[in-house]
Write a structure and sequence with these properties.
Blueprint lengths: L10 H19 L16 E5 L4 E4 L8 E5 L5 E8 L2 E5 L5 E5 L3 E2 L3 E4 L3 E5 L8 E6 L3 E6 L6 E6 L2 E6 L3 E2 L9
Antiparallel strand pairs: 1-4, 1-7, 2-3, 4-5, 5-6, 8-11, 8-14, 9-10, 11-12, 12-13
């Protein structure tokens, strides 16, 4: 197959370089969690949590698609990355992706502790007293995250306190959650 020649071969690379520079500048200026709205009108991607104790993860958006995974814990945080009709493509903390019906999701925010053992603090400072030690895999409720703060307020296992953003999965860098 022959590729058509351009009449002015030096014009296109300059336009492409300028377009790429504008695109990178736009991406750099945008917050880490800004996104386009999906079919539902809500932004994509966004964090939600599982509504039921058993949720089927399917290979496509419909019941005719095979079940690839079954989640057996309510309130697990997941990220909605795509929408199609009543179906949501989600991603979990391990990067597994698949489709679930929107009725299996809730807008309530949750977190999953990553890493071995993480201290839950009384105040949003690293020097604050420890309220509890949270093991990796603990699921809790996200209460709030001040914008651009290194800490978020969570509830887990009957304890309430502040956890560093780097210690959990379930909030975007710099995101404000109220």
């Amino acid at each position: 197959m022959r590729v058509p020649e351009t009449p002015h071969p030096m014009i296109r690379p300059k336009i492409l370089v300028r377009a790429l520079a504008v695109a990178f500048a736009t991406l750099a200026a945008a917050p880490a969690f800004a996104a386009d709205p999906g079919e539902s009108g809500q932004r994509l991607p966004r964090f939600v949590s599982l509504r039921a104790t058993q949720v089927n993860l399917r290979s496509g958006p419909g019941v005719r698609y095979p079940i690839e995974w079954v989640y057996l814990q309510r309130d697990l945080p997941v990220e909605v990355i795509q929408e199609f009709d009543h179906w949501r493509k989600i991603r979990d903390w391990e990067g597994t992706e698949g489709w679930v019906h929107r009725s299996m999701l809730t807008g309530a925010r949750a977190i999953r502790v990553i890493g071995p053992m993480t201290p839950l603090r009384a105040q949003p400072q690293a020097e604050s007293p420890v309220v509890a030690q949270l093991e990796g895999g603990v699921v809790g409720r996200l209460i709030s995250c001040p914008e651009n703060s290194a800490f978020c307020r969570i509830e887990a296992g009957g304890y309430s306190g502040w956890l560093p953003r780097a210690a959990f999965w379930g909030a975007y860098r710099g995101e404000s959650v109220k």
